[in-house]
Sequence to fold (364 residues):
Amino acid sequence: MKKILLLALFSITLMGCNDPESAAAEATQLRAEQHPDRTYVGENNYYTMESSGDIQFTTKKDLKVMYQDFPRYFIEKAKEWPKEDLNDASSYDLPRFQFAWANSSSKDEYESGIKIWSMKTDGTDLRLVTDVTVELVNGIKNLTRSPNNRYVAWADLGGYKTVYDIKTGKVVELSISMSPLAMLWSEDSRYLYFERARDLFSRWDSETGEINEIDFKIRTEAVLTEDKIIKVTDAAVVGYNLKTDERLFVLSSDRSLSDKERIFRVKSISPTGRFAWGSNQSFAWMFDTKELTVKQMTTDYTPAQILGKDAHFSALDSFAKVRIVDRVGDRVWSWRAFYYGALSGDAILYNGLANNGLWFKEGK
Fold:
């Protein structure tokens, strides 16, 4: 009987040694011991925590440089990375950035292609948004996200537009010919308005799939409600009543300046449309569409390609290095979120009203 028990125990030990789960656990433990500074996500991906640092992208002199740790991501296998999950409420407790990124230089077509990613405004919770890949040669120029976070739309360098439904994984091709880049979601997320040809506009219905022509102009830097649109034009911010076709207001850059001096090279609008930004190399303007005021700046300003709720925070839309400014507290953060890979087009903000529009949790 003792021999039988010993043989049984020996067999169990051998089975444990050959158990894939046990081997994986041992490998994970070994990696943790060899690289204590890394947090692995899957077998081939990890991130480290690195401090933000100095930054030089602004003429404003009194910004306080903030030093704190942010994740820096090393991703070889996007297939192993967590995807954005509409049912995971913890992902949406802060506003989020969305951007196009080819995470790897691998010869694998999936891993080397451009995909849509997202992360919280504090740099955490990086998620893969779509499995759809775009070749580097085509690129992605313009990105949007519906207000309910469900739909992602993008235009490539030629203006070909695509919509991806995060809930179902369905892909819809909106335009199969070259067209301008402008796209704008309705407040209820049902409709995506887009420019199908120069100064010709259409509307895609997410419920029926129908595409119909519309008789008003849209811009990407705009906010659309049930009966009103506020949009940033080349040198002004304009509000229209869509039901009466009445122009509600015009807030213009300085008309005494030359066209070169007053035309915007950088444009943005806050999630509610309350504030808008326009700037060029010489001047900048902050527009308040509620108070109908314009603040003009010449030397002491920071650009705002991405503008948060109430213009409290702003960011540059190039994520080669993440750059965030607290415009109320005069603070600035700068860090590198990615060790390698290729970014395409400009980042955007979505879920912008979460945490009352604040981009960092209290105390951080």
Notes: The helical segments are 2-18, 20-34, 109-112, 259-262.
